[in-house]
Every structure is written in C-alpha cells, then in structure tokens.
Design a protein that fits this description.
There is one protein chain. By secondary structure, the protein is of the alpha+beta class. The protein has a single domain (17-169), classed as Nucleotidyltransferase, domain 5. Helices cover 38% and strands 16% of the residues. It is built from six helices and four strands. The chain has a four-stranded mixed sheet. The longest helix is centred in the C-terminal third of the chain and has 18 residues, at 152-169. It starts with 11 loop residues before the first helix and ends with a helix. The model has no long low-confidence stretch (mean pLDDT 90).
C-alpha cells in the first residue's frame, strides 16, 4: 500500500469505500442528530443517531420489517415501503420529543426520486424537521406503488392510515 517512507496509508474504512470522513466531519460538527437512511436488497433502515465524543448513540431505529404490523405485506425494499418506514420513523421521533435532524444517506448517490428521498418524504410528512429541497421527492403515484402492482395502493393506504391514527392517539 504505502510505497515510500513518507507515504501515508488511508484509514481502512476509507480504503474499503465505506466512509467519507470529510462528509462525516461536516455532519458531526453540525451538533445535530443525524437521520441515517440505508437500504439493502430486502429492507430499508432509518436511524436517529447522536454523535458524541465517545461514539455514536442510536436513539431511534425503524426498519421496513416493522410494516407487517400495520397491514403492509408487499416487498419491504421498494419506494412504497421506504415512504411508510419514513412515516413510522417520524411518528416515533415525535413521540419521543425529537424535533429535527440532518439527513445522512452515506455513500449512496443523491438521485432525485430515489428510495432514500421517499423515506425522507415520509419523515417530513409527519412534521419532523429535516432540511431538504421539495424537488427531490418521488412522484405521488410512485410512492403509492401504482407502478408495481394494483394490489399495492390499497395496502399502502391501510398502512398509512394505521400509522397516522396511531400517531394522533399519542
């Protein structure tokens, strides 16, 4: 790796392409909680993380696997599931009296209409404050799942209404 006496080896996570330390420093120095949105092949995960000197602390975590309890039984890795996961995450944040955070999508590309921004729309629709531009959200028909299957929009509405009604009860 290092070829000469004065060469410096980069941090392991930087070499592996896992962490951009420049962006991470900017997020941590803002002293605001970070809203981590991560997607895998099967699920979406959203976390509220507070950075401290001794390490990051996860305050709230919601995964798209929790959507079964709200009547959503379709794929948990699509745009619809990302929106519903964001809605559920936002309601849990407001329940625990958190009001704002800064979006952190990691090394994922910031493409308008992506699943990460569908999750952000769900978070923002609950009233949780995350700085954003309204032009990045996916189309409403895409969020409802009309592009996937005819059975998704009714399932989406049932799950959305359950999450909203649970949020209003608190």
């Amino acid at each position: 790796m290092a070829r000469g006496v004065r060469s410096k080896v980069a941090f392991r996570r930087r070499r592996e392409g896992r962490t951009n330390y420049y962006d991470r420093l900017k997020l941590i120095s803002s002293k605001k909680a970070r809203v981590l949105v991560r997607g895998s092949n099967k699920h979406m995960h959203i976390q509220l993380i507070e950075s401290r000197i001794d390490g990051d602390i996860t305050l709230i975590e919601v995964g798209s696997g929790h959507l079964n309890a709200y009547g959503y039984s379709a794929s948990t890795s699509n745009t619809t599931a990302a929106y519903l996961t964001g809605l559920l995450f936002g309601s849990k944040c407001l329940e625990k009296k958190f009001e704002m955070g800064v979006l952190d999508i990691g090394l994922a590309s910031a493409v308008s209409g992506s699943k990460a921004f569908a999750a952000l729309k769900g978070i923002v629709d609950t009233g949780f404050n995350v700085p954003h531009s309204p032009g990045i959200f996916p189309d409403e028909s895409r969020i409802r799942g009309e592009h996937i299957d005819e059975s998704i929009p009714p399932m989406f509405l049932v799950a959305k209404n359950k999450i909203i009604s649970e949020m209003e009860e608190r």
